[in-house]
Amino acid sequence: MSPPLYPPLDLQVITPRLTLYGATDDLLAQLLPIVRAGVAEGHPGLFDDPMSLYEDNPVRERKWLQAIWRGRGTVRPDAWRLYFVVMLGEQAVGMQDLIGVNFDRFRTVTSFSWLAPNVRQQGLGREMRAAILHLAFAGFGAAEASSDAFLDNVASNRVSEALGYHPNGTDWATRRGEPARVNRWRLQRNTWDKHRRSDIELIGVDACRPVLHIPG
């Protein structure tokens, strides 16, 4: 069997509640109706600028896809981004990204995610984050993970706190052009290890490491 053309698309992170699949174009197509209907509707906004999900259609869909395609092709030792589609059984319900930030020097990562409005407030955000942290720490040997959220993004801040992140100060960002305060969070490997889960399965990690310039 020939090796996969782009191993990150074969990655899977499996938990008892959901599975993260590498975001192939077929899976992205399943998310298009959700993106078209609106992920970032209402106020306050969840995302900082620039953000394709704030755009009007059809620009929203085109920019969203283009950003993912560009991200696939931008892989350096110090900077890479992996895109996952969140699946509940056979249903695509959102995205979870893992982003390497100066990973070759500091082994640091951050994350980004969104869920369809109709499946929020069910604990899926915490499960997705736990899954991607397991990939970062157990799969890729990360030393530290960070996360940011606007002060009024209660759900994201609660997820970070529940998973053991520590407050790491505040900063400013804009959303839809307006300034707003951001909470910064930090999770070190030794803290993650204390609460490490044994029910999360990783598939495809070994083939992915060389693509991301991560030693085996």
Automatic annotation (TrEMBL):
Class of the enzyme per the UniProt entry, highest EC level: transferase
DNA damage among keywords: no
One GO MF term: protein N-terminal-serine acetyltransferase activity
InterPro entries registered for this protein in UniProt: Acyl_CoA_acyltransferase, GNAT_dom, Ribosomal_N-acetyltransferase
Annotated Gene Ontology cellular component terms: cytoplasm
E.C. number: 2.-.-.-
Gene3D superfamilies listed in its UniProt record: 3.40.630.30
Pfam families (alphabetical): Acetyltransf_3
Keywords: Plasmid, Transferase
Name used for this protein in its record: GNAT family protein
Species for this entry: Deinococcus sonorensis KR-87
